[in-house]
Amino acid sequence: MNRSARLVAVLAVAAAMLSTAGCNKLRARDQLNQGVKAYKNAQYEQAIGHFKDAVRLDDKLKVAKLYLATAYAQQYVPDAPGPENQRNADMAIAEYKSVLEEDAKNLNSLKGIAYLYMNMKRFDDAREYYKKAIDADPNDPETYYSVGVIDWSAVYKDVADRKSKVGLKVDDPLKGRQICEEIKAADGPRIDEGMKMLQDAMDKRQDYDDAMAYMNLIYRRKADTECNDPEAAAQDIKAANDWSDKAMAARKKKAEEAAKKTSGGIVLEQSRSQQDQQNQN
After folding, report:
1. Element holding 54 (H helix, E strand)
2. How far is CA 92 from CA 50, 85, 101, 181, 235, in A?
3. Burial letters for 219-248: b for 16+ Cβ neighbours within 10 Å, e otherwise?
4. From residue 83, how far is each of 30, 48, 117 by CA, in Å?
5. Within a 10 A sphere around the Cβ of 75, how many other Cβ atoms?
6. Which of 118-122, 181-185, 211-215, 276-280 has the lowest mean pLDDT?
7. 21-32 burial string, b = 16+ CB within 10 Å, else e?
8. Which of 8, 29, 41, 117 could lock 126 by a disulfide, CB 3.0 to 4.6 Å apart?
9. Is pTM beyond 0.70 here?
10. How far is CA 89 from the centre of its chain?
11. Rg (CA), the chain
């Protein structure tokens, strides 16, 4: 084969490869669209099949990987027993992590992993990924709030377990310095971090009533760390009650504002109707 013939052959192979790659990308998009349609109809198993095919045809199609992870996550039921349920969570996390290998600051993946770990009660892992999300987007109040909730959840579980061993309910006042010191050593840093995170969330969203509600809850756990200082514990409970009142006031204000918007819309329609009648007369 002469030089010209070899060049023609090489170009023909290259053209065929480009054509195949182009066709695969189109087929991947088609599988993605079919998967999205199935996903929106809550047909998650069918959607997973389409998303898998989309990734197989075009492994650079990040949106297909994200949808695949989310479809697995949708099938995970927190606290439900069974290996299949756990498998759905594991597969979702694996797919999210595959996206992070290409895009380390992908917020959907970071938050998706954190949310799954949180529901699996793997609080340290959840906190790690929410903090990565904060690094990727430091302006999102919900991520700070999520870390605060995780801190409270971990503290609440630990305090409840420790108190139950000495015959107390979680909100019963402590009796004895030893258990108080144990709780303070184990949970004090998380309480401090949780308060800071919730405050950061409220600094970024002034009317964040959910964060106010959890500030109430975490102050109640802070009272458990005021060893032999009933006055400090009483101040913590007072602060908790104040935050509870603030949360209720913020929710009431939101409800009133929403009602005004709805009422305003009705008045506007009535005014238009009256104006139309006047024009007809």
Report:
1. helix 44-57
2. 15, 11, 15, 40, 44
3. bbbbbbbbbeeeeebeebbebbeebbebbe
4. 32, 18, 16
5. 16
6. 276-280
7. eeeeeeebbebb
8. 117
9. yes
10. 14
11. 28
